[in-house]
Write a structure and sequence with these properties.
The protein has 306 residues and is of the alpha/beta class. The chain folds into three domains: 2-89, Winged helix-like DNA-binding domain superfamily/Winged helix DNA-binding domain (Arc Repressor Mutant, subunit A), CATH 1.10.10.10; 99-170 and 273-300, D-Maltodextrin-Binding Protein, domain 2; 173-270, D-Maltodextrin-Binding Protein, domain 2 (3-Layer(aba) Sandwich). The chain contains eleven helices and twelve strands. The strands form three sheets. It has a five-stranded mixed beta sheet with strand order 4-3-5-12-6, covered by helices on one side. It has a five-stranded mixed beta sheet with strand order 9-8-10-7-11. The chain starts with a helix and ends in a 6-residue tail after the last helix.
């Protein structure tokens, strides 16, 4: 009975660690793979165990009490050490494994990565689940260290320097227009490009400008940017139903469905390195390594049009 009680208390400590990391019951429950009511019950038990409220509601989520803050670093260190022991001693068999990975990726990554990765996962590891979340430049190293995010996938220059990383694909921009565009389907000159109306993907100010506009400006030129959208999901409909064109990376163009014509960007070609990054402490984790290798193989196996 004493052993069972100790195991139950250990489980509650993992729950407390998740709550302290997330400061939110819903997100903490998701990271633990349990329901929100179950985690709320664990919090009630923790409060009795420690004789302290530990975390109290506020307008910004849960706020830790001084007692909880005093416990936080010691608890985090102990759980990380336990995780390291398990990773060293447990083999990973994808066919029988049950685990949830969290992958943070840019919108480009979601379009080009999710389908090929999940096809491979479902074929080889039916017990593996993957949660895809947006990548933000302000991502915290602590989220990667503790495993609340397993992998970040973005342009390599946006990955934190402290991460280990590998390049997944090298890409270049292309220009997409609809096949029935009034200009016809002939080769696209730089003057043609500047004269056309453009839709761009932009998520930060200045919204109607990207690095391509800076490149044109250096040549004394400008293009007509008509609309900026925060993601690629609207691109296909816009270029299919208007005379606008879109400049996108080639791998992204492969995912868009429609009767489109692809042109090389009439500017000096720039290579973009799309990479996966992870915290060094997960580098030798067999399950983590399997995820990275599977993602790299899945992207390498997807065909690209010239």
């Amino acid at each position: 009975m004493d052993d069972l009680l100790r195991l139950a208390e250990l489980k509650r400590l993992f729950a407390l660690d998740a709550l302290l990391r997330e400061r939110n019951v819903t997100r903490a429950a998701r990271s633990l793979g349990i329901s929100q009511p179950a985690l709320s019950a664990e919090l009630a038990s923790l409060r009795k165990l420690f004789g302290d409220q530990l975390l109290v509601p506020s307008s910004r989520g849960l706020v830790p009490t001084p007692r909880a803050l005093a416990l936080e670093q010691t608890l985090r260190k102990s759980i990380l050490e336990l995780g390291s022991i398990l990773r060293r001693e447990q083999a990973f068999d994808p066919a029988s494994a049950e685990r949830t990975f969290v992958v943070a990726a840019t919108d480009f990554g979601h379009h080009v990565m999710v389908a090929p990765l999940m096809r491979a996962v479902r074929m080889h590891a039916p017990g593996i689940r993957v949660v895809f979340v947006p990548f933000v430049a302000s991502i915290r190293m602590s989220e990667l260290e503790c495993g609340s995010i397993d992998l970040v996938v973005a342009m390599r220059q946006f990955l934190p320097d402290a991460l280990k990383s590998t390049v997944l694909t090298v890409d270049r921009h292309v220009v997409l227009q609809r096949a029935s565009h009034p200009r016809g389907t002939g080769a696209l000159s730089l003057d043609d490009y500047c004269a056309l109306e453009h839709v761009i993907v932009s998520v930060e100010e200045p919204y109607l400008r990207t690095a391509i506009d800076d490149q044109l400006n250096a040549l004394g030129l400008a293009r007509k940017v008509i609309v900026a959208v925060p993601g690629y999901s609207a691109i296909a409909d816009l270029i299919e139903t208007t005379d606008m064109v879109a400049t996108v990376l080639g791998r992204l163009a492969d995912t868009l469905h429609g009767d489109f014509v692809r042109h090389p960007l009439p500017l000096p070609a720039t290579e973009f390195l799309y990479a996966a990054g992870w915290h060094p402490r997960h580098h030798d984790d067999p399950a983590h390594r399997w995820l990275r290798d599977t993602l790299a193989s899945a992207l390498a196996g997807t065909a690209r049009r010239a």
